[in-house]
Amino acid sequence: MRRAPTLLALLLVGLVTACGGGEDAAPGGAGQDGVRLGFSQVGTESAWRLANTRSIEHAATNAGVRLDLRIADGKQENQAAAIREFISADVDVIAFSPVVETGWDTLLQEARDAGIPVIVTDRMVDTTDTSLFVTMLGSDFTAEGRKAGEWLVEHYRDRHGRVRIVEIEGTAGSAPANQRRAGFAEAIKADRDLQVIGSGDGDFTRAQGEQVMAGFLAAHTGIDAVFAHNDDEGLGAVEAIEAAGKRPGTDIKIITVDASRDGLAALAEGRLNYVVECNPLLGSQLMELVGKVTTGQTVPRRVVVDETAFDREAAKAVLHNRQY
Q: How far is the C-alpha of 111 from the C-alpha of 105, rounded, in Å?
């Protein structure tokens, strides 16, 4: 870990949840100019991602951190190029939300060889040497998938006969897609009548979610439920279901992950049935970790964000002050 060029003073402590009401913030004058953070973001594919980027930008400004933000447009090669540029620029800390889980060992080793600590955010990397990054800040995606599956188990507890589920997955190879799928599969094992009859890559976008759902409707009759890996995919599924002359939320149950304003609005309207929260407002926590890393303090290997889940009434209660 490299020596800090300047002291980054104490930042806002504590978890900030998406339903907490306030924006990411640090106390006035809490940071000092000179700490340089290179951050590589996945893209602009969803409301969640845009909120995540805004949170990091806002918190960096408040902390006095010089942020070099690069958008990868969903391409690992763009992210790799950005990280190498950060290394060449000799930034103080690199943080990134990896597009996919695998293929990072060489880049992480290059950063370590340059003496630059790396913080992984939002999505985990699959590496043979976890010492190549100092900490991972983000959600427990497996738990999110498990919550979605547990709701279905409870909802269909008194039904007899097969429940036909289709799954609109996130970007292939990404940590949230892999782990949400695993958590969901683990949960629905509790009821052998719950069966996934189709799955497809929705790439975390509304357009792709609609396209995948339209394909499911053409290929299968009697679909009972949809598990979409994020709100945008689920809202795309709503459009496809309505276009097929069916009622989303009634004829076909829909469970999603994110709890964005659009997702909660659809839940409050009854077009979605259950939404698991994935908190994008990580900015203040990231700046706190940057401050500790650049001053040589020990940080936890894993920082998990507190999250909840929403039914229709819970969505109505929080929708008025949703930040994203």
A: 10
| Residue 94 three-state SS | strand
Overall size of the chain counted in residues: 324
Residue 209 near residue 234 (C-beta atoms within 8 A)? yes
Question: Side chain identity at 103, as an amino acid letter?
Answer: G
Distance of alpha carbon 287 from alpha carbon 60, whole angstroms: 7
pLDDT, one tens digit per residue, over 172-206 is 999 999 999 999 999 999 999 999 999 999 999 99
Write the DSSP string, 109-149: HHHHHTT--EEEESS----S-GGGSSEEEE--HHHHHHHHH
Distances (CA, A) of 189 to 169, 193, 196, 214, 256: 18, 9, 11, 27, 19
Beta bridge partners of 93: 37
**How would you classify the pairing of strands 194-201 and 225-228?**
unpaired
Residue 77: exposure state from Cβ atoms within 10 A (0-12, 13-18, ≥19):
exposed
The pTM (predicted TM-score) of the whole model is: 0.82
